[in-house]
């Protein structure tokens, strides 16, 4: 199998480059991460990438494969056009090879206060929800923060410091939609901004690439609907 | 103290863009069905009445507003220096306002 992989070593003075690799590897039933591990083990131990759970749960191995943001661990090798081009997630600073600096991404995530805000005294056991209220959170809580959506969003590419990006907005809506949360007003106040929210133009790259099959564009639409309802 | 809230802007323009789109989507088919004949006399008769004049002027206003808001979005996306963006906002606003005046002038000249 043939691969073309983005290489960058911060300790050398060289510029980032694409390196070609060829390895005997049966793609049957294997994922991109398997090939990366085989390359690192067999050909080039300096090749650097993040991975942890290797089954699409931790979200640490988001990479760009043949122009598409994916989780390497759940993307089948079969059917990929060769040489398989693997690059780091777009628009984030590269630390080394396929490892990007996610600081900006997490900063936006922190900004939406991704935790329950409820000032009432804590109940003895738990805060109850009806099955319907709980169902509101489906399609929101499953996000693993891999960054595939945000780094595929052109609005994020143009304004990465100020547009929160689909992942943070999805999480923002996850707590607005939570029946136990009492801060939806403040959350909407924070989001009502030409940059933070309204840079989203419904391009829907986020929906296209989400490895968990979530729909951030729909969540953003629901935030806008709530803002309209509040204003009118 | 540091303000944590948003700019509380963006929603109004976003909403105006949607409302103008709805008006255009409603006006165009109505306009299509109303036009009687394609000759000069047909067109002349159509634009003689005040309701059509007003509806058409409103259509042009909706179109220009819609276009300006879209343009503003593009400028925010791509033109980051304020020294460039601000003059461009005003330049296009002025040009579009001129278009509106011109369109109203044309419509009201139909006697």
Name the features.
heterodimer, A: about 230 residues, alpha+beta, Ubiquitin-like (UB roll), Fumarate Reductase Iron-sulfur Protein, Chain B, domain 2, five-stranded mixed β-sheet, two-stranded antiparallel ribbon, 8 helices, 7 strands, about 10% strand, elongated, B: about 110 residues, mainly alpha, 3 helical TM bundles of succinate and fumarate reductases, 4 helices
Please characterize this protein's 3D structure.
The complex is a heterodimer of chains A (about 230) and B (about 110). Chain A is of the alpha+beta class. Chain A has two domains: about 1-100, Ubiquitin-like (UB roll) (Roll), CATH 3.10.20.30; about 105-230, Fumarate Reductase Iron-sulfur Protein, Chain B, domain 2 (Orthogonal Bundle). Chain A is built from eight helices and seven strands, in the order E-E-H-E-E-E-E-E-H-H-H-H-H-H-H. In chain A, strand 6 (about 95) and strand 7 form a beta hairpin. The radius of gyration of chain A is 20 Å and the shape is elongated. Chain B has a single domain, classed as 3 helical TM bundles of succinate and fumarate reductases, CATH 1.20.1300. In chain B, about 80% of the residues lie in helices and about 0% in strands. Chain B contains four helices and no strands. Chain B has helices at about 10-35, 40-45, 50-80, 80-110. The interface of A and B includes residues 189, 190, 193, 224 and 227 of A.
Tell me the layout of helices and strands.
The complex is a heterodimer of chains A (232) and B (111).
Chain A: E1 2-7, E2 17-22, H1 32-42, E3 62-65, E4 68-71, E5 84-87, E6 94-96, E7 99-100, H2 103-111, H3 131-135, H4 154-158, H5 165-176, H6 184-191, H7 205-209, H8 216-231
Parallel strand pairs in A: 1-5
Antiparallel strand pairs in A: 1-2, 3-4, 3-5, 6-7
Chain B: H1 11-34, H2 40-46, H3 50-78, H4 82-109
Helix pairs in contact in B: 1-3, 3-4
């Amino acid at each position: 199998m043939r691969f073309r992989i983005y290489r960058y070593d911060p300790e050398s003075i060289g510029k980032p480059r694409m390196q070609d690799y060829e390895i005997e590897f049966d793609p049957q039933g294997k994922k991109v991460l398997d090939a990366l591990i085989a390359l690192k083990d067999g050909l080039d131990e300096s090749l650097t990438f993040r991975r942890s759970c290797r089954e699409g749960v931790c979200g640490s191995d988001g990479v760009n494969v043949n122009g598409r943001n994916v989780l390497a661990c759940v993307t089948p090798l079969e059917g990929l056009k060769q040489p398989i081009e693997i690059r780091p997630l777009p628009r984030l600073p590269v630390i080394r090879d396929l490892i990007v600096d996610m600081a900006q991404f997490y900063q936006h995530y922190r900004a939406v206060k991704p935790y329950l805000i409820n000032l009432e005294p804590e109940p003895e056991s738990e805060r109850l929800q009806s099955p319907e209220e709980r169902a509101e959170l489906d399609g929101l809580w499953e996000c693993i923060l891999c960054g595939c959506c945000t780094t595929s969003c052109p609005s994020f590419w143009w304004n990465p410091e100020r547009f929160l990006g689909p992942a943070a907005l999805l999480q923002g809506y996850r707590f607005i939609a939570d029946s136990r949360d009492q801060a939806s007003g403040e959350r909407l106040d924070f989001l009502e901004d030409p940059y933070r929210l309204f840079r989203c133009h419904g391009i829907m790259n986020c929906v296209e690439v989400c490895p968990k099959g979530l729909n951030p564009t729909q969540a953003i639409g629901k935030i806008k609907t709530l803002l309209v309802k509040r204003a009118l | 103290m540091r303000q944590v809230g948003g700019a509380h802007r963006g929603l109004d323009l976003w909403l105006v863009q949607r409302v103008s789109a709805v008006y255009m989507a409603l006006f165009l088919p109505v306009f299509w069905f109303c036009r009687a004949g394609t000759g000069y006399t047909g067109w002349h008769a159509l634009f003689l009445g005040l309701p059509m004049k007003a509806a058409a002027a409103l259509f042009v206003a909706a179109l220009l507003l819609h276009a300006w808001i879209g343009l503003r979005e593009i400028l925010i996306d791509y033109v980051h220096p304020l020294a460039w963006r601000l003059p461009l906002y005003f330049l296009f606003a002025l040009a579009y306002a001129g278009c509106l005046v011109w369109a109203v002038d044309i419509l009201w000249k139909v006697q």
